Task: inverse folding
């Protein structure tokens, strides 16, 4: 079956479950899935039920598509994402974003947990992604291009919509946080970085490092969606603090800031509908 036909099969399945026409899409990162409970009038569909969606394996990721409204904006929330390090093909990692685009979203908010590299970043900060560096070693658009999805050589000179960055910064100020912007760098994982690698990434201009988001962002721009990104800085990157890194620390920090994270999304999502 053609990749495009798989997308349309998933779309038809979802349309049969919910009449909602989502305008905004959201991807919830590690430890940040609780926001899905804030979606009003929600229908939740487990990924396993949707044709061509893979099973989700990481602890802290639920694996449901939640359709409803946030501050009145019809929204499709991906509660849990597929990571390349889980062994999924990169086409499967970006598949849900393509399905949301065909369901009708115009803009996409990507969230993740990340290690802080930039000097001013502290665990608990919610960094507005200004740009990214793709060091995952692959591109989700490799292979035959389907012009129905987007162009062969999509522009990446402004992946993260400047107007959305302003919306997020204003919302941060509204909840009493100092807005921080930065460059997110993606590696394939799943091991965390060495201190030498973090020094290299700092020299390359990275402010935060993680194992996701970039494939979805590239794919979303290919589809012509407007994109926003927020990194929850869950820990200082390797070597910046002396402490070893652990997934527990990542989920603990995400848990600690989830109140502000959810307030932020509640403010931002309705403004992304416009
Ligand atoms: N490195 C890579 N990915 C991460 C980190 C990190 O320090 N923290 C959360 N995700």
Result:
């Amino acid at each position: 079956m053609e990749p495009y036909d798989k997308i349309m099969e998933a779309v038809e399945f979802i349309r049969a479950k919910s009449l909602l026409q989502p305008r905004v899409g959201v991807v919830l990162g590690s430890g940040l899935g609780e926001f899905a409970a804030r979606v009003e009038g929600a229908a939740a569909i487990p990924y396993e039920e949707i044709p061509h969606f893979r099973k989700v394996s990481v602890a802290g990721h639920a694996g449901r598509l939640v359709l409803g409204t946030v501050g009145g904006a019809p929204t499709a929330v991906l509660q849990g994402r597929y990571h390349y390090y889980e062994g999924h093909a990169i086409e499967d990692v970006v598949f849900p974003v393509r399905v949301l685009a065909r369901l009708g979203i115009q803009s996409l908010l990507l969230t993740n947990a990340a290690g802080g590299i930039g000097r001013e970043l502290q665990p608990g900060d919610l960094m507005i992604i200004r740009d990214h560096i793709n060091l995952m070693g692959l591109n989700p658009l490799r292979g035959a291009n389907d012009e129905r999805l987007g162009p062969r050589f999509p522009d990446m000179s402004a992946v993260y919509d400047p107007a959305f960055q302003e919306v997020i910064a204003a919302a941060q100020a509204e909840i009493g946080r100092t807005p921080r912007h930065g460059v997110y760098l993606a590696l394939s994982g799943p091991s965390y970085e060495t201190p030498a690698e973090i020094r290299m990434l700092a020299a390359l201009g990275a402010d935060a490092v993680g194992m996701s988001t970039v494939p979805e962002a590239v794919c979303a721009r290919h589809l012509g969606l407007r994109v926003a990104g927020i990194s929850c800085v869950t820990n200082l990157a390797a070597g910046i603090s002396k402490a070893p890194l652990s997934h527990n620390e990542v989920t603990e920090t995400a848990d600690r800031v989830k109140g502000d994270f959810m307030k932020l999304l509640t403010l931002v999502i309705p403004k992304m509908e416009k």
User: Anything to note?
Assistant: Residues 113-115, 192-193, 209-211, 234-235, 237, 245, 250 surround hypoxanthine (CB under 6 Å). The two ends are 35 Å apart (CA to CA). Strands lie at 24-28, 40-46, 64-70, 73-79, 107-116, 126-134, 180-186, 208-210, 226-236. Residues 3-273 form a domain with the Rossmann fold fold (CATH 3.40.50.1580).
